[in-house]
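Intended use. Records like the one below are meant for learning the mapping from a protein sequence to its folded structure. Do not use them to infer anything beyond what is encoded.
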Amino acid sequence: MPAVDLVTRPSAGPVAAAYLGLLAREWEPAMPPALLRSRFLGLLYVLHDRADQLGHVQARHGADVVQDLARGACLSTEDTVRYLAAAVAAGVVVQRGPSAYALRPAAVPDWSAAVDHLTASRERTTP
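Structure written out for the chain above:
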């Protein structure tokens, strides 16, 4: 399966285009190393890839959204849920329902909130 071409592929719409522009040009360089070393960044790119023109994240092939994102980002379902919650805490994704998400091109994401969430959730799951 070919890699997703984020450079020449036309964007799904204005929200997804704004999100990708911020992600690639502003957010990624400003992210703390803890987020860059994890697969959090990869999940943000998969979220962009799965978004429709309004920024609503859609599953492909009728699958559950979280499972589809997990497959796309090569994550476990549990890690996907943790990273999605961290993205919500950072303000770059909005949860619209139990498994419904939307992109949120926030001007200034709170990356420290994402790191705090991932650190706290990792401590809760460690015996």
